[in-house]
């Protein structure tokens, strides 16, 4: 899974039926310290995360479809957690 | 998924089975500020409604084909939605 920070929301009316009434978040990827890596992805939110929050993103199709109990959803990235705290013992 | 701007369309004369009539669009990937990043790619248009100039989001990989009907087709990028608005500091979508 990927660590990131939510930087925005995407609104659309014309989309694949799977995305009807789903919340899409723009997630900037970060390293464990919170520094942006410069990369981002758009992920479906299932944990009600908001802009500014650090999140855990699943970026794999089979697991993502399992989250939505679907065999044919065109989805790969899902926000599956909100991060409280990361500890990195040195 | 990533954001992209449709910059053109591609008209193939021969396609693999299942892709007949599928709109193929030229997409320029964008970063979250709306700046072009990387090279343009060709994506099947799962919405069948996107056109040049529009801001879209597209899926890559095996999941891309799942956005299409029929879904068992050789496609690696597909447009799954047209963006109305990106609510993020720095980029407001211009549909």
Number of strands of chain B: 6
Order of helices and strands of chain A: EEEEEHE
The shape of chain B is globular
If you compute it from the alpha carbons, what radius of gyration of chain B comes out, rounded to the nearest whole angstrom? 13 Å
Number of helices of chain A: 1
Helix content of chain B: under 10%
| Multimeric state | heterodimer
pLDDT averaged residue by residue of chain B:
92
- Low-pLDDT stretches of chain B: none
Biggest interface:
A-B, 28 and 32 residues
Q: Structural class of the helix and strand makeup of chain B?
A: mainly beta
Distance separating the two termini of chain B:
18 Å
Alpha plus pi helix count of chain B: 1
Outline the biggest β-sheet of chain B.
Answer: 5 strands, mixed, barrel
What percent strand of chain A? over 45%
Integer-rounded radius of gyration of chain A:
13 Å
Give me the side-by-side strand order of the main sheet of chain A. Answer: 1-3-4-6-5
What does this structure look like?
The complex is a heterodimer of chains A (90) and B (95). Chain A has 90 residues and is mainly beta. Chain A has one helix and six strands; from the N terminus they run E-E-E-E-E-H-E. A five-stranded mixed β-barrel of chain A has the order 1-3-4-6-5. In chain A, a hairpin with a 5-residue loop joins strand 3 and strand 4 (36-45). The longest helix of chain A is centred in the C-terminal third of the chain and has 7 residues, at 61-67. Chain A is globular. Chain B has 95 residues and is mainly beta. Helix content of chain B is 5%, strand content 37%. Chain B has one helix and six strands. Chain B has a five-stranded mixed beta barrel. The longest helix of chain B has 5 residues, at 62-66. Chain B is globular and about 45 Å long. Chain B starts with a strand and ends in an 8-residue tail after the last strand. The model of chain B has no long low-confidence stretch (mean pLDDT 92). Classes of the chains: A mainly beta (90), B mainly beta (95). The interface between A and B is medium-sized, with 28 and 32 residues.
